[in-house]
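lol ok so funny story. i was supposed to be doing the assay writeup but got distracted and ended up predicting the structure for this chain instead. priorities right. anyway since i did it might as well share w the group, maybe its usefull for someone
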Amino acid sequence: MEQKIINLGIFGFGVVGQGLYEVLNRTKGINARIKKICIKDPNKPRPIDSHYFTTDKNEILNDPTIDVVVELINETDAAFDIVSTALRNGKAVVSASKRMIAENMEALYNLQVENKVPFLYEASSCASIPIIRNLEEYYDNDLLNAVEGICNGSTNYILTKIFEERLSFETALQQAQDLGFAETDPTLDIEGYDPKFKIVILLLHAFGTFVKPDEVFNFGIHHLNDFDIQFARQRGCTIKLIGAVRRQNGNVFAYVLPHLIREHNLLFDVYNEYNGILLESAFTDKQFFVGKGAGGTATGSAVLSDISALLYNYRYEYKKIRQNNQPNFTNDVVLNVYLRYSAPEQVDLDKFESISEKYESPTFRYVVGKINLKDLRTSKWLKDKNVNVLVLE
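and the output, tada:
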């Protein structure tokens, strides 16, 4: 695609689509232009000229003059249909749909190989942070031990407002929604599903292992209460929702859980809608990436970066897959956690391998101890809104 203007066919014109339009028009030197945008509702007011829009997906998918399909919609099945059709039609594809990619990772990898076309999705993982590109290029031969951090800007914004401005959870959530950082239905964010999809994608690029989202345990900040917040403050900690992927004993495990973070941790000072990712390797120890993790222009800039990369025939090489030394995925790992509950019958403390601290009052109880992720993942306690868990450093 070098030395030519590439024509873009875009699916979706919400927050990210409009962000892409803005950054594309403000950026000089990228030979790309929007030819057509496919939307669902033709009657919805749009901030740009109506000639761009269509409701017929085939106007993009079957147009031989469109070089790159940019998929930015929220419907998982429809997004996979668009992306897979475009790849089979020999078109390069850029996507920001982390759920669709995570749930169909192996099929999408095979489609790229079979059709010899690139599929880029930097915006799906940490918005403005180029983490996939770094895993692909800089760490392609490095022995990584861990990829972990804050990869959901919505929950980090909420937690920042709770700890820094002492807002209630409800007020902080509303602010995040008003700013476009959280959806009207915030379930995927606050219950930890959104960062789980991102972690599944990063796991593949870091370790070459395909994992289904259902295999990865996620628990968010939806059970957080004032007692948990006070517990964190008394220990000089803040709370961050962390997605973690770590190699251990020849295997790799992953989860999304809220963590108590101490001040010495680099993630402590990642505020508002920013994301922060720590990489730990055998050769370079720890490296830290930080950048905006939510918002239209932040995500749109990552989409534009992928479009720009296509001008130079860039594609993911998935070197960790080709090295054929992928670790097996496991949930058999012991975590040190704080478990808060109200009544003894709510939890089964026999599942703990050891308990180092215990507290009881008329209203709240907690224990600090070690428990296997397998037992935490299959427990029924965490379905109770009066039970919460935090990982301790």
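The mean pLDDT is 93. The domain at 141-292+326-392 is CATH 3.30.360.10 (Dihydrodipicolinate Reductase; domain 2).
back to the writeup now i swear
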